[in-house]
Structure formats: C-alpha cells, structure tokens
Amino acid sequence: MPFARTCIQMNKEAIESLLIHVIGTDVIVNEVRPIGGGNTSRAFAVKSSQGNFFIKTNRAGLVDMFEKEVKNLELLRKVLPSNTPEVVGYGTIDHVSYFILKLIEPGRRVADFWSDFGRTLSELHRVTGNTFGLEYDNYIGSLPQSNKQNSNWVDFFVNERIWPQAKKAEKVLGTEIVGMISKLSDRLPDLLTQSRPTLLHGDLWSGNFTLNQAGTVCLVDPATYYGNREIEIAFTKLFGGFEDEFYAAYSEVLPLDKGFFDTRADIYNLYPLLVHVNLFGGWYVASVRETLKRFV
Fold this sequence. Notes:
- The termini are far apart.
- Residues 1-8 have low confidence and may be disordered.
- The chain is α+β, with helices and mostly antiparallel strands.
- Helices cover 46% and strands 19% of the residues.
- 36% of the residues are buried.
- Strand 2 (42-48) and strand 3 (51-59) form a beta hairpin.
- It has a five-stranded antiparallel sheet with strand order 1-2-3-5-4. The protein has a two-stranded antiparallel sheet with strand order 6-7. Strands 8-11 form a two-stranded antiparallel ribbon.
- It folds into two domains: 3-102, 2-Layer Sandwich (Phosphorylase Kinase, domain 1); 113-293, Aminoglycoside 3'-phosphotransferase, Chain: A, domain 2 (Alpha-Beta Complex).
- It has helices at residues 3-8, 12-23, 63-79, 113-125, 153-168, 170-191, 229-238, 244-253, 258-268, 270-280, 285-293; strands spanning 29-35, 42-48, 51-59, 87-93, 96-102, 138-140, 143-145, 198-200, 209-211, 217-219, 225-227.
- The protein is built from eleven helices and eleven strands.
C-alpha cells in the first residue's frame, strides 16, 4: 500500500485502534489535528479519554528511525526529565510504523526563558562520557548518522560527521569543493580543540525546541551523541533564533572562549550545512564553499 495512502487512512478510528493497542485499555479519540513541518513522517496531535498524545507515522520499514528517536529521548530524559517529552511507545501495526509521545501542552513562556534555556543546556553538557560517539548509530533528520566511537574528537568529527555527508553530496558539491574539504580535514588537528566527550542534543536549532507546561524549554527531535559541546553551540548560531541571554547564562556555567566564536563555530557548522545539502539540494552549496574559503 502506498505510504501516502497509508497516512491518509490514519483517521480517528485508526488512531483509536492504535492507542488501544499501545496503551492496553479502551480509548475514545475526541480530536485529531494534523501537524505539519515534518520532512519524513506524518504527525498528529490527538486528544482522547486517556490523555493527549503526539503521534508520528511512517512506513513500517522505517521503524528504526522511531526506535532511535526513543533511545535519544530516553538519554535526554535521564538528565532533563522536565525538559524532554515522555515516550508512550513505538512499533509497527498494519504496515505502519508509529511513535507516540505524551502531547506537550505549552504554558506561558517564563520571563527569563532564554537564561533558563542556557542553564538547562549547560546541565546536559555537564554529562560526560569516555569516548566520542554513541553505542548505536542514529539519524539527523532522515539521514543516517554514524556514531562509531573514537577517543579522538578531531578524528571523530572528520570521519563520522564531515566525510559521510560530503561523500553523499559529492555530485552536488563538485570536485573543487570536495577537494577543499580534504584540505581542511588535514588542517583540523591544528584548528580544533580537544575536549571531554559531552552528551549533546545533536540537532539543536530553533525548530527543535518548544515550551513545556511550565513555560520553560522542551527539547524535541534529538540526534544524540557524545561530542565536543562547541559543535552544539555553533549550530544554534547557524540559523539564528537564540537570544544573547541564552549564551550568557550558558557561559556562566560552561565558559566559551573567543576562539570558538571567531573560528571553530564556522568549521563545526560545515556538518549541518552538508546535511542540508543532502536533505534539500544545492541551495546550501554556496554556504559550504564560503565557509571553506575561510580556511583553505
């Protein structure tokens, strides 16, 4: 059955059956509201007799994406239980994969939202590991993300972040840009700093957080791994939307040196730019080229 048709059939009755299957008790669905914005899955906000839920659906063969998203959220929730949505379940049923969270009910944003957000992220970044990467691979957007573990941050960044995306985008980038990436890779041991492996959200931009009921930040759609925390802060700068108070509060707990903002942030943002080339096409090639020209 075509995927588009499968998603259309996730009507009120189908969602009731799904929730009964997952929760294990009778459910009456009162309202189903489609949610746009996803690149790969259909999403719905559901109000029911057993509570309110956020549901994503996709082809059954893509259930691995939902499994990894559950694992990512569980890692975050261990550290930030008030700032991470609660997973209800995931799996497959009737040729459809599904992923269910308790629906986030946004409250009125607190006055010091951005400062609180900065402190919250610093709390996550104080969790450290022994190696860069993760015990399992996951996804950034719909793209596979390799988390092969490595004790050296530069090697991890080059081999598990830059080159997998560059090779996938090779035809779009062209030989000149791929050659520039190779030259930059050789320079990175002198340009990047080592650090302790830090637990990261992994895909932190303005579209991947919302408000929780208390009016503070709720983090969604993570691409979690242990990395250099600078790469996370760099991504928040790439597309904007984060206020100065966020960075000030974060830096009070975990200082960021000037060299990061002047140099390393642009290098780290090559990764999300390459991801965007692969997800959305050639619109981002010019940004990749301009960044590379700074360093090679």
